[in-house]
Automatic annotation (TrEMBL):
Name this polypeptide is given: SPOR domain-containing protein
Organism expressing this protein natively: Nonomuraea guangzhouensis
Region (Disordered): 18-58
Domain of life: Bacteria
Residue spans of biased composition, Basic and acidic residues class: 18-28, 42-51
Length: 58
């Protein structure tokens, strides 16, 4: 499909090519469609890890 950048649209909850919704409504850019598709999972995993690290400081 596209050799450009990929984004995950938070408004439509789907992967979009470089030309799509405004960047303020998207996560990215990512190098591949597959990376963009995993954006929410990756963010969730990172948030969980950061929360656990904050708990270790107590």
């Amino acid at each position: 499909m596209s050799d450009g950048q990929w984004w995950f649209c938070l408004k439509h909850m789907r992967v979009e090519p470089d030309q799509g919704c405004p960047n303020k409504d998207r996560m990215g850019p990512y190098e591949s469609e597959q990376e963009a598709a995993g954006a929410l999972k990756r963010a969730s995993d990172r948030n969980k890890a950061w929360d656990e690290a904050d708990g270790d400081d107590d």
